[in-house]
Amino acid sequence: MSGRFYGIQGGHSVRRANWKFRAAAMSAALMAALAGGVVVQSGAAQAAATKVKASCAPTQPGVAHCLALRVVSGGALASGTAKSGPAGWHPADLQAAYNLDPSKGKGQTVAIVDAYDDPNAESDLAVYRKTFGLPPCTSASGCFRKVDQRGGQHLPAANGGWAEEISLDLDMVSGVCPQCNILLVEGDTGKALDLGYAVNSAVRLGATEVSNSYGYRGTPKGRQALSVFYDHPGVPITVSSGDDGYDNPPNEIPAAYETVTAVGGTSLFRSSDARGFRETAWRFAGSGCAYYGQKPRWQTDTGCAKRAVSDVAAVADPSTGVTVYDTFKADTGFEVFGGTSVSSPIIASVYALAGNGATIKDARRAYAHSSALFDVTEGLNGKCSVSYLCNAGPGYDGPTGLGTPNGTNAF
Predict the structure, then answer these.
(1) Does residue 249 have a cis peptide bond before it, meaning omega lies within 30 degrees of 0?
(2) Is residue 315 a contact partner of residue 342, using CB atoms and an 8 Å limit?
(3) In the chain, what's the furthest Cα-to-Cα distance?
(4) How large is the angle between the packed helices 121-131 and 160-176, nearest 10 degrees?
(5) Closest Cα to residue 220, out of 310, 291, 304?
(6) What's the rounded Cα separation, in Å, for the pair 210 and 207?
(7) Distance between CA 214 and CA 102 in Å, rounded?
């Protein structure tokens, strides 16, 4: 359960070299609201202080850390369709915010690739789905399956931080595509090779989409060698863009690979317009320019000589976070999470709803159908010399890519 701490006020904070952020004081009113699961719809209320803890601590090069951020106190009160129940966005909210049809997705299998084991994965998933009226998804029915990185049952050691990540990923797939089957592939460790083998196993076992909510650093030679694990034409591979804001050079692997859909992050609020929601770039959504490989032909921005991250985005701000159910180790059940760990499984599930995976080999379809996305035009994730790489604006930008789902036509 060790990890980084962030103090966020209004989605903004100051990054420190030691990976720690000073937590701001929260109001008693927000504390009471968080405990009661009260709906907060105004942007001003959402701007109150939020303290979060990273589920996974930073690691050495070549070892991945998960990108889940658990809300410890304050904020994250954008609860769903009723004024009661767990805090955070509920499945119906995500479906409404992104104009998605939860009746679709039958026959699709979304794979979640993570490190280590969550012993409570299936039982926690059952509670989440029952709470929100989603159909059961069990190993007995064949809807849910958990395997090791080789596709067998020699499951790795349990890990509390990665268990939070696993619960988050499973719940986001369930909430966005409740008709989808779910395949959980657990790497022996967070080493890049173990997770790469897990991705290959996911595809071999029939995954139609694969989500990866982690990132790692390494040598340029190592990055190039590992890219083969994330190149599976006909199976969309989504990857979190990272939780460190604008980063140049470079952003995290595997988000920088041109064969994946790199998923940035937004802050999601209620609004009074026809959509009913508004989004801004999340202050810590990862973006940047890759420094190896070729510029994808379908990516036409001019500020990066090579691959630019991100491609698309979805909610990731813990201050407007999502509801997750996790009971392993010290977790108490319903909690609120953020990070681009949220946005990657959301987008993988949107690909599943679209059902076009057999034609997908990278993110180019979104670039050809960008008008079918909600363009995010406000917010920033750092300072940069090329403005659009860290500032949201009309069209493509680094923190949110081309935008967020408005139905499935861009996928």
Answers:
(1) yes
(2) yes
(3) 54
(4) 40
(5) 291
(6) 7
(7) 26
Which of 269, 257, 261, 278 has its CA nearest to residue 211? 261
Residue with tokens 């939780």: 243
CA 381 – CA 377 distance, rounded (Å): 13
Phi, psi of 43 (to 5 degrees): -65, -35
pLDDT for position 81: 46
Q: How far is the C-alpha of 70 from the C-alpha of 335, rounded, in Å?
A: 7
- Could you tell me if 274 and 392 are in contact, meaning their C-beta atoms sit under 8 angstroms apart? no
- Can you tell me which residue has the tokens 């997770």? 195
Any bridge partners for residue 280, and if so which?
A: 267
Pairing of β 333-338 and β 69-73? antiparallel
Find residue 71's DSSP bridge partners. Answer: 52
| Residue 118, helix vs strand vs coil | coil
Residue ranges of the chain with per-residue pLDDT less than 70? 1-48, 75-84, 218-222, 248-251
As a whole number of angstroms, the distance between CA 291 and CA 247 comes to 12
The DSSP string of 252-302 is PBTTT-TTSEEEEEEEEEE-SSSSSEEEEE-TT--BEE-SSSPPPTT---S
Q: Distance between CA 286 and CA 259 in Å, rounded?
A: 18
Residue 62: DSSP 8-state: T
Amino acid (one-letter) located at 316:
A
Q: At what angle do helices 160-176 and 340-354 cross, to 10 degrees?
A: 30
pLDDT score for 125: 98
Secondary structure (3-state) at 192? helix
What is the SS3 assignment for 70? Answer: strand
Nearest to 120 by CA among 75, 170, 79, 72: 170
pLDDT digits (tens, 9 = 90+) for 35-83: 333 233 333 344 457 889 999 988 888 899 999 999 998 765 544 444 5
Extract the tokens encoding 187. Answer: 């790497």
| Tally: H helices and E strands in the chain | 9, 19
C-alpha distances out from residue 121 to 124, 173, 288, 335, 348, Å: 5, 13, 33, 15, 19
Tokens 């990866």, residue located: 212
For 263-278, letters b (16+ CB in 10 Å) and e give bbbbbbbbeeeeeebb
